[in-house]
Amino acid sequence: MKRVITIIFSAVLMTTTATAQTREWTLQECTNYAVENNLSVKRTEDNLHRQEIQLNSAQNAYLPSVNASVDQNFSFGRGLTADNTYSNTNTRSTSFSLGASVNLFNGFQTKNNVELSKLNLAASTADLEKAKNDIRIQVAQSYVQILYDMEIEDVARRQISIDSAQVARLEAFVNNGKASEAELSQQRASLANSTLTLTQAINNKKLALLTLAQILELPNADDFAIVRPDTSSMRPEPIVMPNDSASSINYQRPEILAEEIRLEATEYNLKIAKGQALPTLNLSAGMGTNYYNSSNGFKVESFGKQLDNNFSQYVGLNLNIPIFNRFQVRNNIRDVRIQQYSQQHNLDLARKNLYKEIQQVTLNAENATAKVAAAREAVRNSETAFRLAQAKYENGKSTITEFNESKNSFLKSQSDLAQAIYENMYNTMLLRWYQGEEMGW
After folding, report:
1. 24: helix, coil or strand?
2. Angle between helices 400-434 and 109-175 (to 10 degrees)
3. What is the pLDDT of residues 392-415, one digit of tens each?
4. Which of 294, 216, 203, 204 is nearest to 26 (CA)?
5. What's the rounded Cα separation, in Å, for the pair 133 and 135?
6. Which residues does 286 contact at the CB level (< 8 Å), separation at least 6?
7. What whole-number distance in Å separates Cα of residue 170 and Cα of residue 351?
8. Hey, which of 22, 63, 168, 287 would disulfide with 225, CB 3.0 to 4.6 Å?
9. Which residues are paired to 287 by β-bridges?
10. Does the structure show a pLDDT above 80 at 4?
């Protein structure tokens, strides 16, 4: 049995030494790294870059379009000649042209498309910030879970220390005839259970570290550890419950801004739809020339001469006036108006959800504050009860079962206190973050 205890403490020492050699990450370092490397954030960033390209395309719609063409044609068989007769002949012709066109007026659709693209880009920017905030929350949740698992591991180690001391004490008593083998076996079973609890706590901590490492997109969690904040002097902060959604909540958050921008964008969608009922005016200009040759002996001028003689230019205006389009424009306008109503509902829902989230976080922080005070009192009382039970047991005035029940109650109160402290830390930090502060302790 002593060998088992030695192995356990050796493992504990090795774990402590390995941790000391591993770089420890703060919460701020974790959130910054996750924001830069998480694939979900990068995917949202890709959409932002696409919106930048679409804005550039909308702005380039003001520019003219320029096209050049070269045509080469061959003709075989009977055809009309210059004498207005038909004969079998082979001909070939070459033509060159260069043309440009520019839109002068299209119902302000180009201008409105540019403004719409700017708003879409702004909404995508807000979406990217929201994606970063979501990752920050995930990191904070995983970070706090690791801290809690580390506390549970410490409690389990203290439990092993107590049980090991009692096993050693009972072994000595059994050898002296002052304790029974049944008591020793019962305490050894308690030590085995404590060892199992420690193993589970270590595994839970490793899983929590792996989860955080995956959020950070690290290859593995083998060399990954976090900084444990000092909670000994930490005291719960007073919590102010928001009582008015208009005055107590800061709505300048990315998820709200994105919906507000999209609501503004529907105004330009409506202008674009209305612009389809207006006339369009286009200016076009170009130049061209051609060369012709025949196999019937008809004398033709040289290639260069023909290109010079056949050179021509043109300028044109095209006015297109929509008269009847099967009510398509009218239905497009109706559809955009429905989109406006729907987007307004999305904005109202986003604001309501944010208010509900902050209310819930505030309530959780209030509950955690009360739990910390109650848990501290429980630890003090259970520790006193445990020390008394330990003294009674060691003086032979109580049974091993009573001792273990008191010990388990004391250790459970320590676990409950750790959970309450970290729950309070997380919810208080989250509430401050909702109010515009940086995430951290």
Report:
1. strand
2. 160
3. 877 878 788 888 888 889 888 988
4. 216
5. 5
6. 97, 98, 99, 100, 313, 314
7. 64
8. 22
9. 98, 313
10. no
b or e along 186-213 (b: 16 or more beta carbons within 10 Å of the residue's beta carbon)?
Answer: bbbebbeebbebbeebbebbeebbbbbb
Instruction: Spell out the residues 6+ positions from residue 234 whose beta carbon is closer than 8 angstroms to its own.
Output: 421, 425
Q: What is the pTM of this model?
A: 0.82
CA dist 176 and 119 (Å) reads 85
DSSP annotation string for 64-101: PEEEEEEEEEEE-SEEE-TTS-EEE--EEEEEEEEEEE
Percent of the chain with pLDDT over 70: 87
Give the three-class secondary structure for 285: strand
Q: Where are the domains of the chain?
A: 2-37+106-278+322-434
Q: What is the pLDDT of residues 137-171, one digit of tens each?
A: 999 999 999 999 998 999 899 889 888 888 888 88
Domain 2-37+106-278+322-434: which CATH number of 2.60.40.10, 3.10.150.10, 1.20.1600.10, 1.10.8.100: 1.20.1600.10
> Which two tokens mark 39?
């694939």
Helix (H) or strand (E) holding 135: helix 109-175
Q: Which residues contact 347 (CB under 8 A, 6 or more apart)?
A: 256, 259, 260, 262, 263
Q: Are 423 and 209 in contact (CB under 8 A)?
A: no
What lies within 8 Å, CB to CB, of 207 at 6+ separation is none
DSSP string, 172-186: HHHHTTSS-HHHHHH
